[in-house]
Amino acid sequence: MTLLESLIHPTVFERLSGLREQFQRRDPFRNVVIDDFFTSDFCAQLVDEFPAFDTTRATDETGKVGRKSVHEDIEKLGPHFGQLDALIQT
Length: 90
What we know:
Layout: H1 3-7, H2 10-14, H3 16-25, H4 40-49, H5 79-89
């Protein structure tokens, strides 16, 4: 089983031709929404690895603490985020 097959819900592969058609028909911009894209196990693992809010990563260019924390290296968040990054890069 490939990384792609282990992370993406099997029904996505079964619906590929219909999703492709939906994508092609969208106007004015081609797009498609894919419900249940990842397996529920993979989603649960991402939630488990999701980091707590870190104020040291939430400062803007003026030094003010904001409401968004930024992590530049997604792979360092955990092995499942590393898998997600690898999948997105393919």
